[in-house]
Amino acid sequence: MGNRPIKVVHILEGFLGGTCTYVCTVLPQLVQKGFDVTLICSLNRCCPDAAERISALRKSGVTVYIIPMYRKINPLNDFRSVAVIRRLLLQNKFDVIHTHCSKAGALGRIAAVLAGRNVVVHSPHCFAFLRCNNRFNRLLYLVLEQLLGRLTSRLVAVSRSEAAIAIRARVVSRGKCNWVENGLANGRVFPSATGFARDFTGKVSIDLPRDKAVVTTACRLVSYKGIFRFLEAARVSRANDVVFLLAGDGNLKTAAERFIFENRLSNKVKLLGHISNMEQIYAISDIVALCSDAEAQPYLLLEAMRAMCPIVATSVIGNRELIAHDKTGFLAEPTPASIAAAIDQLLADKAKRRAYAENAYIYFCRHHSLEKQISRLTEIYESCIRDGQA
Hey, do 7-183+369-386 and 200-367 end up sharing a CATH topology, with the first three levels equal? Predict the structure, then answer.
């Protein structure tokens, strides 16, 4: 490489959810480490504050190209996307190409091969075949991942469990698989309402009674995130004086609104829509819940740990790796009844909520620093180049 900085490009189709948090957190840090960093992404699926986030990335020194990419398989659209990505790869002569998630992972890796680029890193952020309930589609996605694995120099999972799945499913060999756990800057701690502090001002700002407990979840409103488990758990919960908050946006918003109306939950459940500043919500939350079918390494749980919010999460892939049951949180079976029972039990036990929050915060500080994540990712990029793959 001589004395010039290593040129890394990240490719992402859906600029939303955890992968959006990933690139907005990681890429500026790579710039500070001396990398020449580019992001190729699409805004066809994006969070409401995407423009502000893209602007912040550019101000941090990240070069950003906005191109058309589409989640659904369409040969003509996909061919055009591959052609645009290939052209950008040839023009910029990147040393490392890092793709994210299923669609950009496919488009980006095919474009890299066509451009003759050798170092192709891929991060699944929860494999599609884990999130799919249709058996045929699940098998199809698995086969596609196995084929694309042959075009991959290194698979970089965001958790140990995701790496183990990649090896077990023969997506890549053990020698081509690493994991780099997600991290967050420690920053200011926003204590939750577990006795550390009560943010009555925050409750008033979203029209919540001061004396009611708050159970929060935040996610994209899509099927695998289990939002109807959360809503059903709110319906069957026996706890008194509690409000359930659902932050996020997505294609199931209308169905969620209908569920709340039909079950007369408007006084018990509030849909907040997309929240840019979740710290304010964590500060008023007695419990943070995650009810998904599968995860890679969810930022919601890491953010809740950092904010010292007690956690209830479904006992599924990804969540189980972060949460030690009855120590750093409560792992519930992925059923509304189990989730509701866990929530009710914790709301009635302030001492246990405090213990969960403190234990989880200690765990977060030890294992999920942003500095550790960037250092490990840097080592992988440099080792790929050192091994003569560039």
Answer: yes
